[in-house]
Amino acid sequence: MLMISVVVAALLSAAPAPKSQPLTWKVTGSDVTFEMSDKDVRALRGGKEVFGLLSRKKDFLENFEPDPEDTRDPSDWEAYQSFKVLSVVGPWVSYEESSSGYTGGAHPYAHSSYVTWDVTKDKGAFSLLDVFPEKEVLKALKADGFVKKHAGDAEAFKNAKTVGAMLESLEPGEDCVGFQYGLDNVKRSVAFHHVEGDKVAVRIAFGYDNESCRGNMFVVGVLLPIPASLKPALERASTRQEGFLMKDAKTVKAPSVSFEWEGSKPKKP
User: Fold this and answer.
1) From CA 240, how far away is CA 250, in angstroms rounded?
2) Helices (H) and strands (E) in the chain — how many of each?
3) Global pTM?
């Protein structure tokens, strides 16, 4: 009997570990289904992918296919792109997108930002100012210490009635923050971090002011009152029934993917 137990135990220990299944959930009140593994997150509608990360590799590589009309030498070119999922709330996927490399010209390039995509609409259709009253977003930004530190015109900052007007009153400062280009960032470069009572913590990513500080990204955190229409989706995300918030991204093993490309450098004689 002991011998049989030992043999069975050995066979069990030698068996390969089962592959982890993708986490799947359907967004309440929609036809959207999400599938998330440690390598990808996909949104499906009617069985068709409307959002994905790994599927972007093809478009990335197509950017570097040979063009007979382009006479530039790409042998020393290189490119890198990465995506890191930050939160999923209802049909909204928020992720960090980074691109860097060299494809000719005087300097390499580098850029990082947050993106929120409503998978039921075209990319770029999401706007934070459509979800929260602009006056609440403005109030929260004005209260942030990092933002206030960059107020170049104190009077204009105080009297600003719109987010756009407030951003125009800010200066890059030594940090080199690109506030002047920031209205689109406030609208779309966001992620949902955690729920705090009747408010949700939102992270807003701002880019850099000029090429001398390329690649820099600055994240501002604000607390916004949760609209009644958003409360159910945030509750489901905060409890990880449908999606997750940024504070839990590591716990749920939110995926990151990256793509690389290098030009063919000529062999030395």
Assistant:
1) 13
2) 9, 11
3) 0.88
